[in-house]
Amino acid sequence: MTETRPRPSKKRRKVRGAEDLRVTITAGMSPRVLESFKQLSDDMTAKNRSEKSAVSTPYVSRRQLQEEAIREQLARLAKGEPMDVRGTEPHQKRKGFWLNADLYEEMRDASNARGIPVTLFFITACTHYLMRRGFKVE
After folding, report:
1. Span 4-62, pLDDT tens digits
2. Nearest Cα to Cα of residue 18 among 105, 99, 108, 119
3. What is the pLDDT of residue 28?
4. Strands, DSSP E only, in 30-133?
5. Is position 35 within any domain?
6. How far apart are CA 88 and CA 107, in angstroms?
7. pLDDT, mean over the chain
8. Could you give phi then psi for residue 5, rounded to 5 degrees?
9. What average pLDDT score do residues 115-138 get?
10. Residue 14 or residue 76, greater confidence
11. What is the per-residue burial (b if ≥16 Cβ within 10 Å, else e) of 120-137?
12. Contact predicate 66/107, CB 8 Å
């Protein structure tokens, strides 16, 4: 007699840190901005690995950097600093970005208060973040 075993469930592959990701934003970004985020992510990951820091996972993702860029922009606006809005460029790449839902809500509220689209707020935050770290993205 053949033994029958239950079929394994078809679980979706879990993405690390994806439990708080609920929003995907699609924005057109300059290839220089995208490449700069990749380079910054690689540099920070290499630094964490070489220092053998107390960080549990030395990998720094581009998503983490982009969320940090948004948080910095929101903090600057809370201090009352003006926002120098950066437009899109002609040779941009459309790309989807996962964001924390709460962070997206804050970004949406701030962009609505200034009368600009959320994607433009996102692009501006990312561009300023990289420029403050010495990247030439313009």
Report:
1. 444 444 444 444 555 555 677 777 788 888 888 889 988 888 887 777 655 566 778 88
2. 99
3. 76
4. 93-100
5. yes
6. 18
7. 78
8. -110, 150
9. 88
10. 76
11. bbbbbbbbbbbbeeebeb
12. no
Strand partners, 29: 93
Is residue 11 one of the residues assigned to a domain? no
Q: In the chain, what is the straight-line distance between the N-terminal and C-terminal CA atoms, in Å?
A: 71
Does any domain span residue 137?
A: no
**CA-to-CA distance for 103 and 108, rounded, in angstroms?**
9
At 34, list the tokens: 């995208």
Would 9 be classed as within a structural domain?
no
Q: How many helices (H) and strands (E) does the chain have?
A: 4, 2
What pLDDT, on a 0 to 100 scale, did the predictor assign at position 9? 46
The domain of 77 spans 19-132
**Token representation of residue 88:** 């899109």
Task: Domain count for the chain, please give it.
Answer: 1
Tokens of 6: 């239950």
The closest of 110, 113, 121, 56 to 88, measured between CA atoms, is: 121
Residue 82 corresponds to which tokens in the numbers above? 């003006």
